Amino acid sequence: MQSQATNIPLSRRAVVLMPVAAGALYVLGRSDSPKRAEFNVREVVLAEAQALIAAGALVLDVRQRAAYETKHIAGAILAPVEALSAAIPASLAQARERAIVVYCGDGSTLGPEGTYVLNKAGYSQAVNLKAGIQGWAAAGLPIEQGAGKQA
Known about the structure:
The chain is of the alpha/beta class. The chain is 42% helix and 15% strand. The protein has seven helices and eight strands, in the order ααβαβαββαβαβαββ.
């Protein structure tokens, strides 16, 4: 006895299975996946970040160079999260006891990871800017463009 599935033409099976596959890919690829929840770091809002920076905190952009050169917080140093994860740059050694405001694009992706890497390496005063550069720029706070500084 032949099963009903083998009697259904391949094109009809594809039509039936396509939405199921698309739904599975959506669930697996969602940005709110628990993967980022593993980074239990201190986050600050814009006002707290401004106060830390005014008091002398180092500002660290953990995005890629192209994103940094498009816009970054005035005075921020570029240290892509991949580079931080491989090794903390020697140029950051003097900042171990200093407050560091870490940020990414939206504050929920690379920023928490970069902050976690720094915290784990002994930079206990590193915090993540919850709003990221998007929130910073939207609030009309000072931004720069161009090469800037690299760690």
